[in-house]
Specification:
Largest sheet: 5 strands, parallel
Strand order of the largest sheet: 7-8-9-6-10
Helix content: 55-70%
Strand content: 5-15%
Structural class: mainly alpha
Radius of gyration: 36 Å
Low-confidence stretches: 467-474
Number of strands: 13
Length: 972
């Protein structure tokens, strides 16, 4: 007899269903089944089944008698302590389910296929909800422990195993009804999205995400990072992978590959692969990473750290984190400014994923530690010439290949047809290559290219091109031999590439470096790639392995060749910036004194920005090279041209770092007002964005007289605005307005409509602060009209958002909501997350004023999510202020107090006096509402004094508010 309770109650005997009698009889059976192999007294049985009326003992005995006729080989015994239904483990589907689940957990790690089979059997036992046709109150009520909650857990465990095994369809089909029934279950939504993505159904995956997001929003929760990353993957396509292609004809290293795979299987955090130059560290790790793709389905990333790359500084930790975050799908403008916050975002983005991170060519353990994933299920594999420390991963030291593996590699690369019967000569070749993969590849490429050479000729060349130094055991002989077989144009370019400032070069940059046209450069680079002296990092982009670069750099490149390359970077960057940021054209430094015959033409903004992103590391390296080689004009102009890109992508370290380097160089030339003015202006903007107001003010003040001496009205106007912003934030509003009015005049004189609109909008903001709302309204409307006419979407987003604020204060809530909604749309279109967050927050404020608190909270949450990685202190302060106001309005006083104090802390740190005054006011109002009148007094007084010092109308509002209070909060 088999009893089934995981669904409607059923009993089966020899494959045939057994009738179980009337409902009362079924209740008695269920009670006995729930207490299987344990006695139940007649009184207790009657109490459970007939709780609402007294049951005679004869009634209980009659049902037991009938059931004995039903249960067959499962006996109902009469014991001294009651009735006992004796049933074997496999006769009850509930106990069988629990046993299968436990067995699967035991074998999951060692035998996942067996675990899948066991869990499938367990899930197959379910036919519906537990005892779905039984009134639970008649069989024990609250005392009955339902296994219903175990079913979703088991389906989730099974889905994880099936997805790892590549069986996404059964996982998808089981998960769909679960997620439909409970869309707020993030775990099951994540698994379903993974299954749908594995099947290529990105549209359905996004629908699941949207349903779960909405269900969570109803609970005032936001999707977690794993769910958000899966949604991004559904939107953007395949998981991130920046791995290069697998090394051709990879052979040997079975033990080393096995060690990396074992570390991955054991859940290790990192593996540190060390070894000599040319020993094949990167090739081994890339091969292992490709083999491990199935174990790390959420991404395989590679960051080149340039630890031992000749002529290139080791990668800064902040830059490496930015690169990895971009690969993980974080938009550039959302990447934080500081290394600490980048680390936090990096670890949060990896959390809940199975991602492999290759950190190639590490300089030191210190460089690596912030880049090691902390998330369980992720793995970092590091390559370096030096050994790691105990906390930086399992050590794996690479030695030269065993002779037989070295010979196998040469055979695979050179082709076996010309090597038959030449084992001894092949052994001599690989011995002369030091059994190192890199020179073996070079030697094989040389031999393959010259198909009429006998092997003896290659061996003789290797013997003639001996090692450079006594410490070299022959590894560079192959490189030298290959080099001597090149034509002079190829040799010349090879030597030039040894002095390349950056990590790589594209075909056009190679043409500039070599002083030839692009077609010729393409052929030369391809020739070097053909003989394995270059690697193709991306289509038409090449890099040189460090040992080869050391060889090539023995003879320094002529200075004029590197100046040609810097000219290419300078002239092309100017063209790319003009295309990507067309409204900046009038304020760019001139590059007309430099020329480059191979500069590409950019068809649109996207093409210009794409080039800047691709060359970013090379451009930073070029600035550093120029600064160190007495090329001041290249140094400062490259740094100034990059400012807008660094600003919009929040790359503050390189923005400030390159400009400070440029300032050190250009300030040494006392007569260079032009360069100094440009650098100071952009440095001032960077420091203002970082909240360093005093520094920003000082830098802008230094720039202003230089623009005036130059007679450059546009530069003077931009600097007046750069002075106005920190001046305003420091509370000197009259002086800020004077700067803006002067800037407005200059912009009008130069017919710079974008500049006019910017100055007008800032004046409108200040007039709003001082209660001149009609004036502010006109200024914002004029600014918005100008920006619409010239098509400046980003500026329009800012201005329309400010316009909505004025409309809100005038009580025009419908108009304000329309303005905020428009601002949000424009900001989202151009990726300006700062304005997007402000607009969402302002929409929340309108809903609060209308008494729609749930909607207000929802938009505050959206604003906080968008602003999470925007490094803008003023934005964060405003969000806290308004969240606090909404919390207080809906009676969540402790939440309001926390938000107010957070705003006050931020305002104190940035020095923004207006925000500090508003934060004091918010804290005072909250403490008053909480009955802490003595605590509120200090904040009332601080708010009133600060508003009065700024000559803001809120000073009078605070006085009136306090006058109406009959408690200790009133004026004293």
């Amino acid at each position: 007899m088999e009893f089934r309770m995981l669904g409607p109650l059923e009993a089966w005997h020899d494959g045939v269903p057994v009738p179980l009698g009337d409902q009362q009889q079924r209740f008695v059976l269920v009670v006995l089944l729930l207490h299987a192999n344990k006695p139940v007294t007649p009184a207790r049985l009657a109490e459970i089944v007939w709780a609402d009326r007294e049951a005679k003992p004869t009634l209980v005995r009659s049902y037991i008698k009938r059931l004995r006729d039903v249960v067959g080989d499962a006996t109902i015994e009469t014991t001294p302590t009651g009735y006992l239904l004796r049933a074997g483990e496999d006769q009850l589907d509930t106990t069988r389910f629990a046993r299968l689940r436990a067995e699967a957990a035991d074998v999951r790690a060692d035998d996942p296929r067996r675990a899948i089979a066991l869990l499938r059997e367990a899930v197959g036992l379910w036919r519906g909800k537990f005892l779905e046709d039984i009134d639970i109150d008649r069989v024990g009520g609250a005392e009955v422990i339902s296994p219903d909650e175990s079913y979703p857990d088991v389906v989730g465990d099974l889905a994880e195993l099936e997805l790892e095994a590549g069986e996404h369809r059964p996982a998808r089909d089981r998960l769909r009804p679960l997620v439909q029934a409970d869309p707020a279950s993030q775990k099951h939504a994540e698994l379903l999205i993974r299954a749908l993505l594995a099947g290529g159904d990105r549209v359905a995956a996004l629908r699941v995400f949207h349903a779960t997001r909405d269900a969570l929003a109803a609970l005032r929760m936001a999707p977690g990072p794993v769910l958000r990353k899966l949604a991004a993957r559904a939107e953007q396509g395949d998981p991130p992978s920046s791995l290069p292609s697998r090394p051709g004809e990879f052979t040997g290293r079975t033990g080393e590959i096995g060690a990396i795979e074992a570390a991955a299987g054991a859940g290790r955090r990192a593996v540190w692969v060390s070894g000599a130059p040319g020993v094949g560290k990167t090739g081994l790790v890339v091969e292992a990473a490709h083999r491990l793709r199935g174990r790390f389905p959420d991404g395989q990333l590679l960051a080149r750290l340039n630890g031992f790359t000749p002529g290139v500084d080791p990668a800064d930790v902040g830059d490496a984190l930015s690169e990895l975050l971009l690969e993980l799908g974080v938009p550039a403008e959302q990447i934080p400014a500081t290394v600490g916050r980048k680390v936090t975002l990096y670890q949060a983005t990896l959390w809940g994923t199975r991602t492999l991170v290759v950190l190639d060519n590490a300089a030191s353990p210190e460089q690596i530690r912030p880049l090691l994933p902390e998330a369980e299920g992720c793995l970092a594999v590091i390559t370096s010439r030096r050994m790691g420390d105990a906390d930086t991963g399992e050590p794996l030291r690479l030695a030269p290949l065993p002779p037989e593996e070295a010979a196998e590699l040469f055979h695979a690369l050179a082709g076996p047809a010309r090597l038959r019967g030449r084992a001894a000569d092949v052994a001599a070749v690989v011995r002369r290559c030091g059994y190192l993969p890199m020179p073996i590849r070079v030697a094989a490429a040389l031999f393959r290219r010259h198909d009429r050479w006998p092997l003896e000729h290659l061996l003789r060349l290797l013997e003639e091109n001996g090692p450079w130094g006594a410490e070299d055991d022959g590894g560079t002989a192959a490189v030298r031999a290959s080099y001597h077989q090149l034509g002079e144009p190829q040799r010349a370019l090879f030597r030039l590439l040894g002095s390349l400032p950056g990590p790589d070069v594209d075909v056009t940059g190679g043409a500039a470096l070599a002083g030839c046209d692009v077609a010729e450069a393409r052929l030369l680079l391809d020739d070097l790639h053909e003989v394995s002296l270059l690697e193709e990092a991306a289509p038409e982009r090449y890099q040189m392995l460090d040992p080869l670069k050391e060889f090539a750099a023995v003879e320094p490149a002529p200075a004029h060749a590197l100046v040609r390359l810097l000219d290419y970077y300078l002239v092309t960057l100017a063209a790319a910036v003009c295309a990507a940021y067309p409204f900046d054209r009038a304020q760019l430094p001139s590059t007309t004194d430099r020329a480059c015959a191979v500069t590409p033409v950019f068809a649109d903004a996207e093409a210009g920005l794409r080039w800047i992103v691709a060359e970013r590391d090379n451009l930073v390296a070029a600035i550093r090279y120029a600064a160190g080689h007495a090329l001041p004009e290249h140094t400062w102009r490259l740094a100034v041209l990059l400012w807008r890109y660094f600003n919009t992508t929040n790359q503050f370290e390189d923005w400030i770092g390159t400009l400070e380097l440029a300032w050190r160089i250009v300030s040494a030339d006392a007569g260079n007002d032009y360069g100094q003015a440009h650098v100071l202006l952009r440095l001032a903007t960077a420091h203002d964005r970082r909240g360093q107001l005093a520094e920003a003010l000082e830098l802008a003040a230094q720039a202003l007289p230089k623009w005036r001496r130059l007679g450059d009205l546009r530069g003077e106007a931009a600097t007046l605005c750069a002075l106005a912003i920190p001046t305003m934030e420091l509370g000197r509003h009259e002086q800020a307005m004077a700067h803006l009015e002067a800037a407005l005049v200059k912009y009008e004189q130069t017919e710079d409509r974008r500049g006019e609109a910017h100055a007008l909008s800032m004046l409108g903001y200040l007039n709003e602060q001082h209660g001149h709302l009609e004036v502010a309204l006109r200024q914002h409307e004029s600014a918005a009209r100008m920006l619409r006419e010239i098509g400046h979407v980003q500026g329009l987003a800012h201005t329309v958002n400010n316009l909505g604020s004025v409309q809100e204060r005038l009580g025009l809530l419908t108009e304000a909501l329309a303005s905020y909604t428009e601002a949000h749309a424009h900001a989202a279109e151009v990726g300006d997350h700062c304005v997007e967050a402000y607009a969402l927050n302002n929409i929340a404020n309108v809903h609060r004023q209308r008494g729609r608190y749930a909607e207000a909270v929802r938009y505050h949450d959206k604003a906080r999510e968008v602003a999470a990685n925007v490094p803008d202190a003023d934005l964060r302060t405003q969000l806290y202020l308004d969240r606090g106001a909404t919390a207080l309005a809906r009676g969540a006083r402790q939440e309001a107090l926390t938000a107010g104090k957070s705003a006050l802390d931020l305002a104190d740190g940035s020095g923004n006096r207006a925000y500090r005054a508003r934060a004091h006011r918010g804290v005072a109002e909250t403490l008053h509402a909480m009955g802490d009148h003595e605590g509120a007094v200090t904040h009332w007084a601080a708010a009133e004094a600060e508003f009065a010092a700024l000559d803001l109308p809120e000073a009078g509002e605070v006085r009136e508010e306090r006058s109406a209070l009959g408690c200790a909060c009133g004026p004293r």
